[in-house]
From TrEMBL:
InterPro entries: Gfo/Idh/MocA-like_OxRdtase_N, Gfo/Idh/MocA_domain, GFO_IDH_MocA-like_dom, NAD(P)-bd_dom_sf. It comes from Candidatus Merdiplasma excrementigallinarum. One of its GO terms (molecular function) is oxidoreductase activity. Residues 129-243 form the GFO/IDH/MocA-like oxidoreductase domain. Residues 2-117 form the Gfo/Idh/MocA-like oxidoreductase N-terminal domain. This is Gfo/Idh/MocA family oxidoreductase. Keywords: Oxidoreductase. Belongs to the Gfo/Idh/MocA family. It holds the Pfam family GFO_IDH_MocA. The keyword Ubl conjugation does not apply.
Length: 321
């Protein structure tokens, strides 16, 4: 599979380093805002071609898949560009700025018969399946609450502090907390309560979100772009609880009984970076002619975007779209 990267920032570097070590993926082309930047990126990470515009990259007839790695506010525009040129797309999270944008580009992909999927890597990782197996085993009994937190000091990052780029904690890191809750408790949410610390630009820097479910479950989520945290997820049941070490890139799962004694531990398989799983999922889908990946179906992407729209409305965060 010949793969291209649209954008040449930090997250593009991680993807480039990943696919360079994948035997069935060719690092074919990169597109940046200037030819010089694209050429430097291509030389450093082993790409065959470099383009000084995103339009030229999208027009490359050899590409099988393009990874969109630009800021949130530009995702819809760049996804649309790739689809209009007949390219399958793996788009970085948060998928778009709003649910309306998500519905629009997903409809376009289906109309054109192309794969479009969200690069929320935690959905594709093998430790997701391992966590499901542990929960289904009943070892902690019926889980009724969870806690998830993900925080990094990111105030020096333009994509976080600039409202025009879709800045804020929710779209960048809070999205992982929401996906963690979704993978554990599903999406049948009866009530959402959210609050945040806002910047002088009116974007969220720290978020507190509580999700309530019709069957009595509750998820308490925290994300903060002003501080570092342990990044843990905790799932509580009647017989014990589960610790997920790093909900952003699982470093292990530990199970405890009601006496707080460790009874099981599951190690994360060796990986390149963790990005390889979403690329492999795209390759499988393309080979089968599928328009979505089962790990993150279109309906789930839209549901997550709708939930974040609802949360931002409660927080008073608005983007110019």
């Amino acid at each position: 599979m010949k793969m291209g990267i649209l954008g040449a920032g930090r997250i593009a570097v991680t993807m480039a380093q990943t696919i360079a070590q994948m035997p069935d993926v060719t690092s074919w082309a990169v597109g940046a805002r200037s030819l010089e930047r694209a050429q430097k990126f291509a030389e450093e990470y082993g790409f065959e071609k470099a383009y000084g515009s995103y339009e030229e990259l999208a027009a490359d007839p050899e590409l099988d898949l393009i990874y969109v790695a630009t800021p949130h506010a530009l995702h819809a525009e760049h996804i649309r560009l790739c689809l209009e040129h007949g390219k399958n797309v793996l788009a970085e999270k948060a998928f778009t700025l709003t649910a309306d944008q998500a519905r629009e580009v997903l409809a376009l992909a289906e109309q054109k018969g192309l794969l479009l999927t969200e690069a929320i890597w935690t959905r594709y990782m093998p430790m997701r399946r391992k966590l499901e197996e542990v929960l289904e085993s009943g070892v902690i009994g019926k889980p009724t609450s969870l806690w998830a937190n993900l925080s990094y000091y990111l105030l020096h990052k333009e994509r976080i502090v600039d409202r025009s780029l879709g800045g804020g904690a929710l779209l960048d890191i809070g999205v992982y907390c929401l996906n963690f809750a979704s993978m554990v408790f599903g999406d049948d949410i009866s009530e959402v309560k959210a609050s945040s610390v806002l910047s002088d630009q009116g974007i969220d820097l720290a978020d507190s979100i509580t999700l309530f479910y019709p069957d009595g479950k509750m998820a308490v989520l925290h994300s903060n772009a002003q501080a570092e945290s342990d990044r843990e997820g905790l799932i509580y049941g009647e017989k014990g609880y589960i610790r997920v070490l790093n909900i952003n890139n699982c470093e292990g799962i530990i199970v405890y009984d009601a006496n707080h004694q460790e009874i099981a531990r599951y190690e994360t398989p060796r990986q390149i970076t963790g990005y390889e799983y979403e690329v492999e999922a795209c390759a499988r889908a393309i080979a089968k002619g599928d328009l979505e990946c089962p790990e993150m179906p279109h309906s789930e992407t839209i549901r997550m975007m709708e939930l974040m729209d609802q949360i931002r409305e409660q927080m008073g965060v608005k983007y110019d779209v």
